[in-house]
Amino acid sequence: MPHSTTLRAFFNEVWNQGDVEACDHYLAPQYSIWSDPGDPWDGQTLSIEGFKARMTQSRTPFPKQAFEIVALVEAGSDLMVSWTWTGTHLGDIPGFPATGRAHSMKGMTHYVFEDGLIRGHWQAVDRLGLVNQLQAAKIS
Predict the structure, then answer these.
(1) What stretch of H or E contains 33?
(2) What is the pLDDT of residues 93-140, one digit of tens each?
(3) What would the 3-class secondary structure string for 41-100 be?
(4) Beta bridge partners of 83
(5) CA distance 140 to 138
(6) What topology is assigned to 3-139 in CATH?
(7) What are phi and psi of 117, to 5 degrees?
(8) Helix (H, G, I), strand (E, B), or coil: what is residue 19?
(9) Residue 65 pLDDT class (50, 70, 90 cuts)
(10) What is the pLDDT of residue 1?
(11) Residue 138 and residue 119: Cα distance in Å, rounded?
(12) Which of 6, 33, 48, 59 lies at 20 to 30 Å from 41 by C-alpha?
């Protein structure tokens, strides 16, 4: 299966639908987060169970979320994707009580595959833009 097909299914099942058990089908036994500034797991290597815990914690404030893949570039075992994320803020984040409002952000992720499975990523995300949106929602 092409890496792009695998990654699209991973985004849809795991992140968009919130199917934590689907991680078993897409992730290598050890998943490395080589660089993801602002992510609490930046620089860590996670087991599949650790990734599931990360996913669950990340989705809690925004259980209704979706990633739209804007572009994919595949080069050997690497796949680069730019995306737009939207989510409805339904759970509290420290300093930001749930507002029920929709928010969005953009990012780019460089995934590395091994034996057909995703084994890690580097990522750049506009987290400051999301914080600004949350701050504006908190004030209004």
Answers:
(1) strand 27-35
(2) 998 999 999 999 999 999 999 999 999 999 999 999 999 999 998 877
(3) CCCCEEEHHHHHHHHHHHHCCCCEEEEEEEEEEEECCEEEEEEEEEEECCCCECCECCCC
(4) 69, 107
(5) 6
(6) Nuclear Transport Factor 2; Chain: A, (3.10.450)
(7) -115, 150
(8) coil
(9) very high
(10) 77
(11) 37
(12) 6
31 C-beta neighbours (distance < 10 Å), count: 23
Short-list 39, 90, 83, 93, CA closest to 64: 90
The predicted pLDDT at position 138 comes to 80
- Decide if 129 contacts 116 (C-beta within 8 A): no
28 pLDDT higher than 80? yes
- Could you tell me if 88 and 102 are in contact, meaning their C-beta atoms sit under 8 angstroms apart? yes
Rounded CA-CA distance 82/129 in Å is: 16
Give pTM, 2 decimals. 0.92
Tell me, what's the pLDDT at 139?
78
β pairing state of 27-35 and 78-88: unpaired
Q: Where are the domains of the chain?
A: 3-139
Statement: residue 67 has pLDDT above 90: yes
At residue 48, does pLDDT exceed 90? yes
